[in-house]
Amino acid sequence: MKITVAGAGYVGLVTSACLAELGHQVTCIDIQKKKIGSLQNNRLPIYEPGLEHLLAKNIQNGNLAFTVDPQLAYSTTEIIFIAVGTPEMPGGSVELKYIHEVAKQIAHYIENDVIICTKSTVPVGTNDLIQRMIDNQKAPTLRVEVVSNPEFLREGSAVHDFFHGDRIVIGTDNLEAASILKKVYQPLNIPVITTDIRSAEMIKYASNAFLATKISFINEIANLCQKVGADIEEVAFGVGLDKRIGPDFLRAGIGYGGSCFPKDTKALLGIASDVEHHFDLLEAVINVNNRQQSLPVLMAKETIGSLQGKKIALLGLAFKPDTDDIRGSASIRIVNELLKEGAIVRAYDPVAIPNAQRMFSDTIEYAYDLRFALHEAELAIIATEWNQIKYAPLEIYPSFMKNPIIIDGRNCYAIEEIQKHSITYLSIGRRAMLKESLVNR
User: In angstroms, how far is the first alpha carbon of the chain from the final one?
Assistant: First the structure.
């Protein structure tokens, strides 16, 4: 089918490349000329495993094109996927100006009947608003059906998720539109759920809020384990064997981040507030996560005292492995709190340093080499569970650090392995390994 994707961000690019891989004729439009120029030359503005190959392959075979021209993108297309940004505004509400702009543009340029699928995460009721906006501005002879089609793509594994997702949600009361979209996705052989449009919008928020709740819950249990002498990994394993609960998202650490969970939990809280519903549980989830992100700095102060002038190695800047995205990353809070304490920070990350430099400039040092990050450091904080960190030989810590003290915010290492080395090691919800001669209280 002839498909247009509005927006060349994470969701838009993955959706464009993957739909083209299914054999559809896809045009991706964005207002940023520089970004589109880079994409036309097979240069990705983001890091996402597997995406660069799909991009190059489908540009070459003619299934995928990029443009800034709305006439070219919208005039004769059959389906339009809206994947523009819906950033968080002060107070946690969702900024919908990009949604409004693209809706107006679509209404102006379409020349035939189209189905419009909203992939952007939007508050409940937004798709009804898009429908009204386009109906009021389009040519009266044209039929336009707006459908909610939320995405469930995880950064770092988005291409895999597109082809091997758990479900596809189509929110519409129009049986013809639902049938056409099922054909679009048919080669994937993924279960399709058809709901009313507002339920589809809510499914996206409810899914992310539930996963965030699991993360905050296990982190609270981890903090309790620390105090009573239990091991969170053994607890989580035992809990996760219950089929009603499952093992996913029960990994203790320093909380969730990224562009989705923080934004979507706050947005859902705002949706609840707008209808005078007190969502106490979700408020607690957010508060727990905020506290958890500050935990490494608190642990550092308890371990070595004042951080003034201390050289701290921060291992990981991205909010999760296999992405260069630092939005909502625990590392942001950690860096800011370390700087406030007067620490000297040298940060390591395999791919996220350019994004971090735009945020922190020269207030911290940067290292593409793990050993350089650790050189002469008096304490190391692990914030992202990159494989380069998880599988690094543990002897590099005593070999390169001034004081081999690790605060592991992601529980990367087995306690049994740490015991073989002269390292002070503190993790989340597990017993501390203290080498007294290394701890300066």
Answer: 66
